[in-house]
């Protein structure tokens, strides 16, 4: 009898413990919805804590403060110079004519300075004005007569391949002059130190950004953009919007624009066109661009197109909408300066 009583008590104890364990497990096990909500909260909290700083030129967030002074490099855009090195790393690329309908690029680096940049080409007075307005350190190889005088007068802190060819600037055996001058990111820094230029960013641009591409309000659909500088296919550019990456890829003369060194496609969050008055000033076809009067513009982002204006705000060519800086999608931007008659130069399809 005592033996049976002992067995009954033992069974009850085991049963009670098992029940308690089951109840504890059930109470502690969150539902799938609770897990997803908790994960989302943790992610948002982590992003808010770990990415407190916003790039003044790209609008992208980072753990580190963006204190470095921007660097602008004149990059050769002749077909013999393509594909260029370091082009995919630029926060902003400005494209405009140098002579006739041949364009050059001004690549602005502030978020990162690539290992290799080039081919580097010569300065123009309006290139210098853009660099000066952005308070950037300017890099070029060569100069027009007007640009040479401006550099001599110290309009902008700079280094030039005319003085540092073979030292800070190196020639590539892959291409022929004048399409083969390159400079490394390390040598840009050495050049800044050599002339004793300031390294800190003291004048952030007045640019405005959305938090993300999802915040862009709907507008006129524009997934393919076509721009021509003159009649040459070499300077016929096409931008195509990728709904997966939510960015634009780019091609010139039918060839996709990639970075020579990394082989990365150039991907853009914003593509802009500013209508600027041009004037031919010499027999070589050199141009004078009016960068102070402002004018009509187009802004392409998130697969949409908006008609905007541009103004020079504190020296910076700024996209404007309803009297305020137009909001940009975080990421890299490409800005074209085109001649008057923008609706003839730039076309697009939904």
UniProtKB/TrEMBL annotation:
InterPro entries hit by this protein: DUF3048_C, DUF3048_N, YerB-like_sf
Domain DUF3048: 58-195, 225-335
Protein name according to UniProt: DUF3048 domain-containing protein
């Amino acid at each position: 009898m005592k033996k049976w009583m002992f067995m009954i008590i033992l069974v009850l104890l085991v049963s009670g413990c098992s029940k308690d364990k089951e109840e504890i497990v059930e109470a502690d096990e969150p539902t799938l919805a609770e897990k997803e909500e908790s994960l989302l909260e943790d992610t948002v909290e982590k992003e808010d804590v770990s990415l407190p700083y916003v790039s003044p030129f790209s609008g992208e967030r980072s753990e580190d403060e963006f204190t470095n002074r921007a660097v602008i490099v004149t990059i050769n855009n002749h077909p013999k110079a393509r594909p260029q090195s370091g082009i995919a790393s630029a926060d902003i690329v400005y494209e405009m004519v140098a002579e006739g309908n041949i364009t050059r690029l001004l690549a602005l680096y502030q978020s990162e300075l690539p290992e290799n940049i080039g081919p580097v080409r010569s300065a123009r007075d309006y290139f210098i004005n853009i660099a000066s307005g952005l308070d950037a350190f300017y890099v070029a190889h060569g100069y027009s007569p007007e640009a040479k005088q401006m550099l001599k007068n110290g309009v902008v802190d700079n280094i030039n391949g005319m003085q540092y060819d073979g030292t800070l600037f190196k020639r590539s055996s892959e291409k022929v002059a004048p399409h083969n001058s390159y400079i490394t990111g390390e040598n840009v820094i050495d050049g800044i130190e050599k002339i004793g230029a300031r390294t800190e960013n003291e004048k952030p641009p007045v640019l405005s950004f959305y938090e993300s591409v999802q915040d862009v309000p709907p507008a006129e659909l524009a997934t393919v953009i076509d721009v021509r500088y003159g009649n040459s296919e070499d300077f016929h550019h096409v931008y195509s919007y990728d709904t997966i990456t939510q960015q634009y890829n780019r091609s010139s003369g039918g060839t996709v624009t990639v970075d020579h060194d990394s082989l990365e496609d150039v991907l853009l969050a914003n593509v802009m066109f500013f209508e600027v008055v041009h004037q031919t000033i010499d027999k070589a076809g050199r141009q004078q661009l009016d960068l102070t009067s402002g004018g009509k513009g187009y802004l392409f982002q998130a697969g949409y197109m908006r008609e905007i204006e541009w103004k020079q705000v504190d020296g910076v060519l700024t996209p404007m909408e309803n009297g305020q800086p137009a909001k940009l999608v975080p990421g890299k931007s490409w800005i074209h300066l085109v001649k008057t008659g923008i609706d003839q130069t730039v076309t697009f399809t939904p």
